[in-house]
Amino acid sequence: MSHSSSLSLAVSPEELGAASKELLEAPAEEVLAWVERRFGSRAAIASSFGAEDMVLMDLARTHAPSVRLFTLDTGRLPPETYEVMDVVRRRYGVEIETFFPERARVEALESSKGYFSFKQSIEARKECCAIRKVEPLGRALAGREAWVTGLRREQSVTRTEVQAVAFDADHGLIKVNPLVRWSTREVWAYIKAHSVPYNVLHDRGYPSIGCAPCTRAVKPYEDERAGRWWWESPENRECGLHVRR
């Protein structure tokens, strides 16, 4: 997919600026309602089926019912993640558009560098993420005008500047983060109040869940992303899906 540094044709710079200002401190429901009005099915929620994504999907049922849903299946997800995905399909009656990495690239990586190359260096880990996540995301976003994520500022040091609505220059479309100001407590209060299904790994000390080999439980004093690529320093713990600029 070709990246663009210019604003998506679907939204003018003036409209984006106005929306960013208007939705700066708006409730998640209002942000999702704006996505529904402005983009409808041309927008999609990117879900890894963590707690935040489950809240987003539940809210979207009412406030953004036309917005699509997709996930990236890296081939190394925990079985518990597939279980909650199946619960979502049955409970919400939604289609989960699934994007896999390119077979030839995965085969070449594992044949030449083994099955745990991502632990050798930051560069090697990012190569694995690029093949299993970043390239499939490019295909998942192709033809869309906006994508919606469960990013929250509280999650880690790499996400403190996240905005509710912004232009994603790396992918050339609008990126919307309705839960940006939510706390962990608010996420779980919503899940409990609305009986939202969630990944059972959360009950086992996993606040952030990705590929099985790259995710562990965290200790009470650690931040939410400490269990992702824990052998690296905190400022490097992103896979490339959410580029910092």
Automatic annotation (TrEMBL):
UniProt keyword list: Cytoplasm, Iron, Iron-sulfur, Metal-binding, Oxidoreductase
Protein's pathway: Sulfur metabolism; hydrogen sulfide biosynthesis; sulfite from sulfate
Main localization (coarse): cytoplasm
Localization terms from the record: Cytoplasm
Reaction(s) the record says it catalyses: [thioredoxin]-disulfide + sulfite + AMP + 2 H(+) = adenosine 5'-phosphosulfate + [thioredoxin]-dithiol
Organism lineage: Bacteria, Pseudomonadati, Myxococcota, Myxococcia, Myxococcales
Protein name: Adenosine 5'-phosphosulfate reductase
Cofactor: [4Fe-4S] cluster
Active site location: 239
NCBIfam families, alphabetized: APS_reductase, cysH, PRK02090.1
Pfam families in the cross-refs: PAPS_reduct
Keyword Oxidoreductase part of the UniProt annotation: yes
EC number(s) on file: 1.8.4.10
Cofactor stoichiometry and binding remark: Binds 1 [4Fe-4S] cluster per subunit.
Matches recorded under PANTHER family: 5'-ADENYLYLSULFATE REDUCTASE 1, CHLOROPLASTIC, 5'-ADENYLYLSULFATE REDUCTASE 3, CHLOROPLASTIC
Enzymatic class: oxidoreductase
Family recorded in the similarity comment: Belongs to the PAPS reductase family. CysH subfamily.
GO MF entries: phosphoadenylyl-sulfate reductase (thioredoxin) activity
Segments forming domain Phosphoadenosine phosphosulphate reductase: 44-217
Organism per entry: Archangium minus
Binding residue positions for [4Fe-4S] cluster: 128-129, 211, 214
CDD domains: PAPS_reductase
Keyword Iron-sulfur: yes
